[in-house]
Amino acid sequence: MSTDTAQKRSVLFVCVHNAGRSQMAAAFLSSLSQGAIEVRSAGSQPAEKINPAAVEAMAEVGIDMSAEVPKILTTEAVKDSDVVITMGCGDECPFFPGKRYEDWVLEDPAGKGVESVRPIRDEIRGRIEELIASLAPAAK
After folding, report:
1. Which of 10, 12, 36, 81 is deepest in the core (most CB within 10 A)?
2. 85 noted as active-site residue
3. Spatial distance between the Cα atoms of 93 and 40, rounded to a whole number of angstroms
4. pTM given for the model
5. CATH code for the part of the protein at 16-133
6. What is the DSSP letter of 60?
7. 78: part of which helix (H) or strand (E)?
8. Among candidates 8, 11, 12, which has minimal Cα distance to 36?
9. Which pLDDT score, from 0 to 100, does residue 140 have?
């Protein structure tokens, strides 16, 4: 438990199945922050595998998510994160005072083809770019 201001910021993305939106968001944040931000993703009811259309859509922009697996949301993951971004999981995410919470309303890519997933992917990328800018250390 360091109070060192140089400590990495940490973001948790949560959706129901942790198979599409939260995985794409986590992959974009990992890639675009170049490892400067610790990234987690989880689901309240994880699917058995990642949405293949989400994997394909991300591959089109040079990000490989094929090895990712859906993970169960834990209280520890929320506690260990500075920012918690929910995507359609309602009230299933534990709340801890002092954390930054955002709810991103995004279409669910479940059961959709890659053509339908691309606009969701692109919207997530834009939100990730804004998130990175908001987490950047203030200039002294």
Report:
1. 12
2. no
3. 14
4. 0.90
5. 3.40.50.2300
6. T
7. helix 75-79
8. 8
9. 42
Choose, from 78, 89, 120, 135, the residue flagged as catalytic: 89
Task: Determine which one of 11, 57, 93, 131 is catalytic.
Answer: 93
Active-site annotation holds for 89: yes
pLDDT digits (tens, 9 = 90+) for 14-53: 998 999 999 999 999 999 999 899 999 999 899 999 999 9
Catalytic residue check, 93: yes
Q: Kindly list the distances between the CA atom of residue 123 and the CA atoms of 5, 17, 24, 70, 117, in Å, as whole numbers in the listed order.
A: 31, 19, 11, 21, 10
Which of 11, 14, 15, 114 is labelled catalytic?
Answer: 15
The DSSP letter of residue 72 is B
Integer Cα distance of 131 and 29 in angstroms: 9
Spell out where the chain has E strands: 9-15, 37-43, 83-87, 100-103
Q: What is the mean pLDDT of each run of 10 residues along the chain (140 residues)?
A: 61 94 97 94 94 98 97 93 86 77 92 96 97 75
